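In the design runs reported in the main text, the only information available to the sequence generator was the tokenized backbone. The following block is the verbatim input for one such run; it is reproduced so that readers can re-run the procedure and compare outputs position by position.
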């Protein structure tokens, strides 16, 4: 448990998502820049040699390896390494050709547009990221685009995220409308939320990575995957169905309170000890969840607010439900807490997350002072 104004900041940094594959494009730009400088040098040389330079100029493309996108040149195929190409919304055949040319997929824009116009199915090409091959014949490039085989999106949900944070991240990554998620969450049956959850998805959306097809997946479908993975994890651990909600609730408290994996089984034990003794839990993370604000912004009024059902300073027992999506480490901590008589815990170093546990309130007060000393020294 943590005390007012001393709760360690919970840093839920967004995971890194792969951006566009720009490595090869950057290499091509460097090669083109070098070739451009070489052209200038060669032009100067042609001027110096006069008319004899015409023969060289006529074969300049082959000598320099340059490609003019306006000339109808084509690659023989069959194609090389995979490259991902973003086809913009409302792109014409010419725009598609330009994007493919820049990515090294086709030899010229004109060859692509000719193939695009010759294929009656080209009108079905959808916007999005398509998996292509380098140096493809234009006709093959169009045929591959027509298949609309989009590159999978990777959506990663960090442990400890709330439903609101999960939806926000999903909207950012997938482009699915927030309204679709909101509508699905109001109808739990549409994504298979178990009855134990009592209509609230909090804690039931599994923290992990999902591979998605942006042209196929829906908000309800994504939520279904998340709930399914949570149920699979609970079943794999042989947790009775009637205990699922309580386990997730306790694990979510552990998730939000414990920074280090080795501390989580101790926090789980301290929570159990308090529950067994009928003590209030006094967990700031739960109060903050119910108040709809970060734990670092809690006030004394928040801690006294009896109307907040998640106020573990005013209400004994567990809060009404989970406060976030716990990771499996936190679930395991609840299932296998470390033996001990601890009833208190406090983070004494907000930089390292060092947490100390105590069995008595007197010892806890000493650790509180240790935290205050750290705060004074680190301003």
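Verbatim output:
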């Amino acid at each position: 448990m943590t005390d007012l104004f001393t709760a360690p900041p919970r840093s839920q940094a967004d995971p890194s998502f792969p951006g566009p594959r720009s490595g090869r494009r950057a290499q091509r730009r460097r090669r083109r820049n070098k070739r451009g400088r070489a052209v200038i040098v060669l032009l100067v040389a042609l001027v110096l040699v006069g008319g004899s330079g015409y023969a060289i100029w006529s074969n300049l493309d082959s000598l320099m390896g340059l490609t003019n996108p306006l000339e109808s040149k084509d690659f023989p195929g069959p194609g090389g390494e995979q490259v991902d190409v973003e086809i913009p919304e409302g792109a014409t055949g010419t725009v598609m050709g330009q994007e493919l040319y820049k990515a090294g997929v086709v030899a010229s824009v004109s060859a692509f547009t000719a193939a695009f116009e010759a294929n009656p199915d080209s009108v079905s090409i959808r916007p999005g990221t398509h998996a292509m091959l380098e140096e493809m014949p234009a006709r093959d490039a169009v045929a591959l685009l027509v298949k609309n085989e989009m590159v999978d999106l990777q959506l990663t949900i960090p442990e400890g995220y709330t439903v609101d944070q999960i939806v926000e991240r999903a909207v950012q990554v997938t482009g699915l409308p927030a309204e679709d998620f909101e509508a699905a969450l109001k109808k739990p049956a549409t994504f298979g939320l178990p009855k134990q959850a009592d209509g609230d998805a909090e804690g039931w959306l599994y923290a992990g990575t999902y591979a998605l097809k942006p042209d196929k997946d829906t908000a309800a479908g994504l939520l279904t995957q998340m709930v399914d993975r949570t149920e699979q994890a609970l079943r794999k651990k042989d947790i009775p169905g009637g205990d699922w909600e309580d386990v997730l609730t306790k694990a979510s408290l552990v998730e939000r309170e414990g920074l280090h994996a080795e501390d989580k089984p101790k926090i789980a034990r301290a929570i159990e000890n308090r529950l067994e003794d009928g003590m209030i839990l006094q967990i700031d993370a739960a109060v903050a969840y119910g108040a709809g604000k970060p734990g670092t912004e809690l006030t004394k009024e928040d801690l006294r607010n009896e109307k907040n059902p998640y106020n573990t300073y005013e209400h004994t027992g567990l809060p009404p439900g989970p406060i976030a999506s716990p990771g499996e480490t936190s679930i395991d901590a609840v299932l296998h807490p470390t033996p001990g008589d601890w009833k208190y815990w406090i983070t004494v170093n907000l930089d390292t997350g060092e947490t100390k546990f105590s069995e008595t309130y007197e010892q806890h007060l000493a650790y509180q002072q240790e935290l205050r000393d750290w705060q004074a020294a680190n301003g």
